[in-house]
Amino acid sequence: MKTITPTTHDGSLADAFALAQEKNEPIFSPTAVFTDDRGWSLMNQFQNVLAPTGQVNYSVMYPNIIKAWHRHAKQTDFWLCLHGHLKVGVYDEESSRAWVAVIGEKRPGVMVIPPSLWHGAATVGSEPAGLLYYVTHQYDPAAPDEDRRDYDSVPGFPWEIQHK
User: Fold this and answer.
1) CATH code reported for the domain at 3-30+48-143
2) Which of 32, 35, 99, 142 could disulfide-link to 40, CB 3.0 to 4.6 Å?
3) Strand segments (E) across 2-149
4) Contact 76, 145 (CB under 8 A)
């Protein structure tokens, strides 16, 4: 399987959201890091995309863990890895296209994943990875907007570390 690097969009996150929906593919929106003599910050990450039906979550993944695959019918995901690094995988079953990108401390930004695309993540490195994410629809345990499949159900997807 040939994997594609997601499109990088240098405009606003709202524009990246619209582009992800239009193209039905993941879009990576780089984030500027604010740094001064006190430390550093990532600011205004989900500006102009928050909806009253959404929710913000934080998840920690331990080393050597793969959380994949799942997809949503209605929900768009906005992923920002704050601690460590994640290999993000996205797969479009209809076109057989797959995207892969590493996001995290050394590559800050928001990955926008529109509905219907299978997606997941694997930790990169020997430390846990912390994922802050916004979803456009709150989780409903009575009727989850989620389909699941095994992490190895997309033949040839490169979850393992690529030695180059």
Assistant:
1) 2.60.120.10
2) 35
3) 3-4, 7-8, 27-30, 34-36, 39-41, 55-61, 66-71, 77-83, 85-92, 97-104, 109-113, 118-124, 129-135, 147-148
4) no
Residue 76 tokens read as 């768009």
Specify the pTM: 0.88
Q: How many CB atoms lie within 10 A of CB 158?
A: 13
pLDDT-derived band at 127, boundaries 50, 70, 90: very high
Pair of tokens at residue 111: 């990955």
DSSP 15: H
For 26-43, what is each residue's pLDDT tens digit?
999 998 888 878 777 777
Count CB atoms within 10 A of the CB of residue 22. 10
| pLDDT for the residue numbered 73 | 97
